[in-house]
Specification:
Layout (H helix, E strand, L loop, with lengths): L1 H22 L28 H4 L15 H16 L4 H15 L30 H4 L2 H13 L9 H9 L11 H11 L3
């Protein structure tokens, strides 16, 4: 009988100890109370979304390509968008510009590539000083090169109603006129993500 009572007392003491450990310190040893003061919480207002129907009004043509972008490439995307806004053009113009730069340079601001160079093409849009696009310093400046591209785009009658690849090709006069189409979805996604940022 003593063994049963001893086990019961030890069991109850163990439960009391475990309860104290899990429940926290006794009130005599409790941490001092902290006054509750209201905390200001910053809430970011929703930025207006881009009308995605305006970004790809004709649907994409053919298989789409995609590249993962570095921080430098994203910076170039933002520079193209800023220049598009500065030129007073809309999101669709930014999509055409970014798709063109994706095709021409993968959004890398390329200098002269030596033997791998296509003539004297440089910058995001692979513009050529010898073709009147500007000096090397100018066409390797993302804002300048974008503004030069957009100036050419503005001169294309009805570019807004053309498939992207035709609008881009009319400005760029590439040996591969259909290659711009493959970048339309990624360009549209980038404009949707960064137009209001």
């Amino acid at each position: 009988m003593n063994t049963i009572i001893r086990k019961s007392v030890l069991g109850i003491a163990g439960l009391a100890f475990a309860g104290g450990v899990f429940a926290g310190p006794a009130t005599a040893h409790a941490a001092p109370s902290v006054e509750s003061t209201p905390v200001a919480v910053a809430v970011q207002a929703d930025t207006p979304s881009v009308d995605k129907a305006k970004l790809i009004p004709h649907g994409v043509q053919g298989a789409q390509s995609h590249v993962d972008l570095s921080d430098e490439q994203v910076t170039n995307v933002k520079a193209i968008i800023a220049a598009t806004k500065k030129a007073g053009m809309d999101e669709r113009a930014a999509v055409v510009s970014i798709a063109t730069a994706l095709q021409e340079s993968k959004l890398e601001n390329l200098g002269h590539l030596g033997d791998r160079n296509d003539h004297d093409s440089q910058g995001l849009f692979q513009q050529r000083p010898s073709s009147g696009w500007g000096t090397v310093e100018q066409i390797t400046d993302p804002e300048y090169s974008t503004m030069a591209f957009l100036k050419g785009l503005k001169q294309v009658d009805g570019w807004q109603d053309m498939p992207l690849t035709k609008a881009a090709q009319t400005v760029q006069v590439s040996a591969y006129p259909d290659h711009y189409a493959q970048w339309e979805q990624q360009a549209a996604d980038l404009v949707a993500e960064h137009w209001n940022s």
